[in-house]
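Two entries, shown back to back:
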Amino acid sequence: MASPTFSQYGYSWLRDGAWIAYAMDKVGQHDSADAFYRWGIRVLTAHEAHVDSLLAKLQQGIAPDETDYLPTRFTVGGEIGKDEWTEFQLDGYGAWLWGLADHCQTADAALWQEARQAIQIMVRYLAALWQSPNYDCWEEHREQIHTSTLAAIYGGLRAVQRLDPALVPADLPSQIRDYVLEHCVTTGGHFCKFIANDAVDASLLWVAVPYRLVEVDDPRFCATFDKIVRDLHVPDGGVHRFRVDNYYGGGEWLLLTAWLGWTYLEMGQRERAIPLLHWIEAQADADDQMPEQVEHHLLLPDYLQHWIAKWGTSAKPLLWSHAMYLVLDSLLND
């Protein structure tokens, strides 16, 4: 689950889980990652009829209800939660496919055959919906098409295609890439948070790392990266999600700070990644638990008490924070 102690995070998001599993693979805990992907295979296969029903509606020209889409989070038992949530998110399904492909390549090649039915379900689901507006990875802006979501879908489908070309329509990843390059680049030459919004979001790092829609030396990504550093990175500190973030006042997120460090490594700038790792370490409490975000440089501090009153203090431990710390640490050691 995303966090065992936070009121709203006692579920498993495929997005969070994929990155937690990736971290476990990076540090040699392959059985842990394997257990997560086997859980995902069981869950997604069990919801095949749900996908079939949705696709039938789309083929008949019937507008789906929100409950027709697969959720972004499942109970630990693999069920769809009963409480209201911003469920229709696609990036987690792309992340799960990307992570599964990486796990099978690095740790458990035999799992791929067991996973093929679940993969086929996911490919059909994403092929039908990738151009649909849906909530972004931060669970906002249901009405928009988000660049980092498209990057995650592209990355997942491309990873599957490399391993097993028969599972993905040959031109589907390239269609998604062409769409992003046509619609998700601003007149200033950088990738945008979502279509027709010139702002950047730290999740745009995913466009290159790890999903490789473009490479880190692509001029459009370089312009995006520079703007993320200017707009969202606190000097000698962490990384904000986006400039108008009011969630818990808009703090610095540990997992995004790790992602910035990972991107610096991909750019050959190791010396810039090391201080980011040390900053993340410094945010752990006396029990070595890492939070989702910290309150040192809030963007909108007047909102902090609103969220504390609603859900309690910010999530800690957030397993995704721990995961991305492990990823950056292992890459620096490599």
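entry 2 starts here
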Amino acid sequence: MNLKPWQSWPLLVAGTYAVFCLAVALRQHKLLYFPEYLTDAAAREAFAFYKVARWPDAAGAEYRGVVKVTVPEASLTNGTVLVFHGNAGGAHDREYYCDTLQKLGWRVILAEYPGYAARGGKLGEASFREDGRATARLVRARYPGRLVILGESLGSGVAASVAADPEVKADAVILATPWDTLASVAAKHYPWLPVRLFLRDRYDSVAYLRSYGGPVSILMAEDDQIMPASSTLALFDALPRADRKRLVRVPYVGHNEWFGQVTDEQWRAMLTPAP
């Protein structure tokens, strides 16, 4: 069948679009994850710069994160906060969590993802979920007392999946600039792509948190250009118990500027919510 030029254009456009979608689908992990890879030598230099140390510190133990002790260990009596950081970089450059929360009496462990910094392993939701749960179980076994799971951005999806593990028994969860599902965020940023059809990593925080009965605090940066407010609010609205959830709005800041605007009083309320 011979097509006239004007008849072939729709086929050409459709074919080009299909090829583009396939390319995005095949490279989605490259487009989703932005780890900072470090050799052992580079990691030693970076960790020294940020004044952090590998955790756990037992001889022969697998490195799972970093810690920074800015106050005496004996003063960290409130419990432990396990932090799952945002997408880019590594746990070591989130040491400001330690500076802030340890002054409030909390031990802070900055979890690292497989494939980030000097850790080997595979990128992806399943890998991060199972590794995060293993880290949380180790924290729970090593440090009796309260355990708070804190996740930021990408880490909020990981934190939700870790909190869903009944063996972790988290006492509270804090999610900063979170989503309801990764698919909903991707669909808002790329409405011209059928992301719901080919997205492999879903990070369905709504589904994960259905099996978590503890208190959940949601931090929302009101001028966030990366995490749509509608996705954050959808997660908050989906949490079933009004008496077990808290929404903290941080005004006039974007996705990466919220941390310095949270007061000590707000941190205390989220870390030790009323029963």
